[in-house]
Amino acid sequence: MSARGESNATTQAQQEARKTTMRMFLVRAFERIQSAASRSKHAALRHACEATLKAVKRILPTEQSATASAPRDLTRREMDELSNTLVHALRLACESRHSRIMSTALDCVQKLALYGYLRGSTVDTNQPSGSPKKQLMESVIDMIGKCFDFPDDHVQLQIIKAFLACITTPRCEIHEDTLMTAVGTCYNIYLMSRNKVNQTTAKASLTQILHFIFNNLEMAMLEEAEATALPKTKAINKQESSDELLTQSRSPTPSPVVSFLANINEEDPTPPSGHSSADEAETTPEEHSNDDLSSSTEANTNTADSGEATEDADNSEAFESSANTLTTVASESPASSSADETPAAAPTRSPSGGSLPMAQTVSRTPRPAQAGVRDAVRLDSRIAYLDCLAVFRALCKLSTKKVKEGTAVDSLDMRSKVLALELLLSILENSGVGLQRHERFIHTAIRKYLCVSVLATNGISSVPRVFRLSLLIFSALIHKFRDHLKNEVGIFFERIFLRILESSNSTIRQKWLVLDALLDVCHNPEILVELFLNYDCDADDPRDIYERMVNDLSGIAKGVNEGDHWTTPEEEMAVKIKALDCLTTVMNSLVEWSKELREQESSGDQTFLDEDGQRADDASEQAGSASSESAADQFTKQLTRNQQLKEAKQLFERHPRRGMSTMIELKLVENTPEAVASFLVSSSGLSKEGVGEYLGLRDKKDQDWHRRVLQSYVDQFEFTGTIDESLREFLSRFRLPKEAQMIDRIMESFAGKYYNDNPGGYFANADAAYVLAFGIIMLATDLHSPEIKIKITEDEMIRNWRGINDGADFPTDFLRGIYARMLATPLRVTDDPKAVHAAQHLSHVLPPRQRQILFHQEAQGMLQASRAELREKMRNQYQYFKSKNVQHVRPMFEVSWCGMLAAFSYMLESSDEARAIQLCLEGFKAAIRVSSIFFLETERNAFVNSLHKFTELKVDVPISRKNIECTKALLMLAHTDGNYLRDSWKQVLLCASELERLQLVAHGVRQSSFAISARQRAAHRGPQQAVARRSASSVSLSDSKRGSGAATGGAASAATGGAASRPHSSDSSPAVTGFAGSARHGALPPPKVLPGASSNPQLAAEAQAAQAQAQAERTNYEDENARILCQQVDPNVIDLLFSETKRLNGDAIVEFVRCLCAVSEREIEGNPPRIFSLQKIVENAHFNLGRIRLVWNRIWHHLQQHFRKVGCNENLDIAMYAVDSLRQLSRKFLQKDELANFNFQRSFLKPFEEIFKKNRARRQIRELVVSCLSQLIQDRAANIRSGWKNVFEVFSAAANDASEQIVSLSFEMTRRVVADHHALVFEQFFVETVNCLGEFANNRLLKDVCLKAVLLLGECGDHLAQGRVPLLERKRIAADGSLSPARPRARSRPPAPAAAESTAAAPAATSVVVVVAATAAATTAAAAAGDAPTTEWPLFTDSKAHMGVWFPLLTALSRVVLHPHVDVRTTALQQLFQVLRSYGERFTVEL
Questions:
Q1: 1373 three-state secondary structure
Q2: Is the separation of the CB atoms in 166 and 140 below 8 Å?
Q3: Which of 101, 501, 573, 1321 has the fewest CB neighbours in a 10 Å radius?
Q4: What is the pLDDT of residues 60-99, one digit of tens each?
Q5: According to DSSP H, which parts of 40-132 are helical?
Q6: How many other CB atoms are there within 10 angstroms of residue 369's CB atom?
């Protein structure tokens, strides 16, 4: 058998099994009903049961008699007959008023619906003759609904189950009035039943029913989009919608049910006693009773209100035709009968939780064969839409039902309101993509009913649970429908929720609930960005919602309402922490939104700073992101414009004339009277007093301008009512100025406008209107001023106003009407911030009852303003902006960082709550990260400086846990945001420095001289060798008269920097020699002498004792703080801070080194000085040695300045330590070969030269510099290239030094360089070598050095003449005497070392003849050895290259001729003549 045959056989077997199961169930159910029915009382029921059993046994055979083809033999007529028979018997059972019978009957109805035996297309044949035809399902729903009156819990439970099965089974097709009856009955069971199980089940069933109804609408929209082949830009995303909706339709118990079951037993919070909220005092015009929900269906089934903009004009006729079409199609469609031939088809939802395929789930109505598929799909979609609209509108009206004042939370009316709100919340939270894009539903159901009725009424409720549900509904609208509700969301934010946060009359519970709702909004960065773009950057109606929200949250966190005598400290702290949580969440959302930019920065190449310190971005990246940045720039420009407008409005409040002039200059307002008047009328946020003062101005210079502005302002109004109503409307927009002339001008314009708009009225002329308007203002003042105790009566008013109508009287009824209206309502200015602030100024000292009354009055104003603005903007067109651009974070942070910094700093300083500290630190870290990513220097430095201040490591007070956490957070920034800290590295390094000091204190290192501690010494030597270890084998002046021991010992002592092994120099200041005194960074200043202490020994002793006691206390504090820090902070965190610098990019490491140098300088200038950072400079260089030379050039730019300054420090020990550190760095740098034509070595050896020349008064420093260079030459001579210039500069300066030891040491190293490394040195630095030897030859102290230097100059002449010095251009004399280009030749050896050494070793009394003879012998020996050229000789011309080498050599010898010592003069003269005699023939005539 094929696979298809096996599948058919399996399906038939399943159908047969289900039919057999249904037969068994029906037989048993009706047998139980028959047995429970009384023979006398329920005779009709028993007969009906017998007939039903016969029909069941006839139509549904037993398993033994059934065949495989039996299910196909059942016709539609047989199924309808069976259904009517069953329903007739079940109706009688439900009317029996017997608990057991009714329960069994309702259970049977549930099973029939689930197994597909009840169809919406079946006609009820049991109706009396003459009555209209009725669908069988309508009768079934009515039958189930009538059972609600029977007071039995089990029966009510079965009612709920039956309704749920009928509605959620698509074959039943429950719509319109029938659907509303079922939903209303379940609603009432929840309200009326006292059984918790029934209440829970009813609530869960209602949720599942609503879920099914709205799911059908979304599936119908999906089918309609597919059938009509809508473009992809307008149709629903098929893949996304179908997957989501199919998953929802197959869920036997949706997630909202689970949540309701979990929260159903939650107790309602106890409401505050007193006045009810505004929503309980005012309701919508249409009210419906909650005990008869179906009564609202009459309005629902006709049409949405006639004022709907998106509804068709013939909604009522279309709905009626849809209902008739449904009835006709159900009975006449032949196409559907074939599909429904099988009565035992698989049910949509079986008792076990199974479900139909998707095709069966969405087919709610059989489609007519004569109509196309498109029309049928549209019909299904419209029916589903009307069902959803009816249910949604009924719930909205139930949620706004009037509740009497003082109603208990568990009362019927309150529970009805709460249930309606919960169901609305469930609908919104579970809405899919289709519902979120259904514009008709959004406009009709959400904008017109939900927003206007629910949120504008319950959004200011004093009942906590109602208020909380309203906030949750608002949050759901923001998450799901915000792009369709721009105006509504802005109004609710500005006029209700933020006003509650700002109001001092609102309770602490209301603030907490609003904060909880805002916290949910703040978790979504996309919502925050869209709020900022659409409201703060709106060009037409800027509301500053994001900025205002952050400022309000900051104010609450800082305790703006502190001092409330009726709020406990615990409640205040809870609200502060909640506000702080919101601010931290906002910052984390901004970090999340800018994550893409951070990832790009981390993965990109290293960037560098230009000369101005600005970041140089890659040009290609700028071009690639040009479009997104241009969009961000547009919003930024608009934000800037809004900020300018805001500042101009603030100026307008203080100086109206200057404020308006500023707006005109900035082109915020057009420079025409009409534009200015329109701006004064329509712009929000303007000072009401400023508007009144500006309208009343009359300057001689601009008199005509102000007159035209006032006239244009008055022309903006249409005064069609009574004069007092028109005056009330006119004065509601501004506050009258205090000057009488200004008031007179304004009222004159008003009277003229009113008289022109109302011709033929009570007024004889405009003067009569003018006088009466003034009288109305005085009447309002008299009636409502608390300072006037005796109020004017109505008769007195009429008497006073006689004859003001051009000599005539106004009608008495007219005047009495004015008096009554003015007595009922005073003249008020709407949206006046000053009035609100004045009313709230002292409200925190009022008792809760009075505050509740004040809030009720304030809520009434919010409610009226919100409703008025909602209705006004209902039809307004708007554009909603969405963006994924991360650049929007920058302006968002710029407008909010001040408030956040204030809140975080205040809470961190004033609170010790662990949660508050955690949130503050999270906010600090997020703010630093955002400001660093966008290179906002001021903002980043402000946050980092504030965080560093709270570490309090330098303050001699007991350290707390929050100080330790701040220290950890600051150090953690180095690991997480090191690439962005830039200038803020200084605070991080200061913290690390202070932490290291306290760690030393904890280990007992407090009093010491500058001798480096063992720990510091080991860390300092770390990867390098100490100078003392090298000095033993470094320089030895064996041929010096003073011996090598003194020189070597002095160099070693100077290099170690140890004060104990070195006697103090006579030329160093005693005040700065060594680190004497305490090692604490914050040591006390010298003791102050009290007045009179010198003459009173007792006062002096007391002062010293007090200072000693204070010092002891501070020392104890420091010891305890150090101990705590060592326990709480990992000691390795500092080492990790510096070792991780190798991960920093090029810009970051340069900034790190610059800040490290600044901290090191600060440590050295301290009292006492410290060298922690100076030591870390060397370690940091070791970790970053592998960086490219371009980065190292920028790093060394800061290091050389620091070493140059520290090397000249007045403290000898510090200066020597700096020189030794510089030597260590130089050894590391010289490990790398320098490329040709680069001068980096010259740069990093330059500090040696400058330190040597600037320390003329301190021999130890100069000696150490020479010793360091000597060691570098010995260790790294092969790697030195451009650095030779600095070496010879130092040795040249040392040649004239007053210290014989320095002169001897430097000359010996110069001699070795010439002897051993002349091939490296002469290539580029021959002239520097000659100049250096010339300085030694002119030394006045050591004759031996002078003689040796003169001989070395002669050797240099030999090297030069014999071609061992590379020149820029050279010509040679060929054998035939002609000139030829120079050819490369092997360099000849220098004169025999033996001769040179013998000459050098000669005693001081050796005669010049002996020296000359030795030199001649050396020259002869060199010639005999074949060193001199034989066939060709260099020819030297007057070229620049030749002149540049010969002139310094001959000049140096000629200068020595003037030496005061005769032997030196003689030797120099002989060497000069010897050079000229030996090589003069090679000079050209020009040379």
A1: strand
A2: yes
A3: 573
A4: 766 554 444 444 445 778 788 888 888 888 888 898 888 8
A5: 43-59, 70-73, 76-94, 99-114
A6: 13
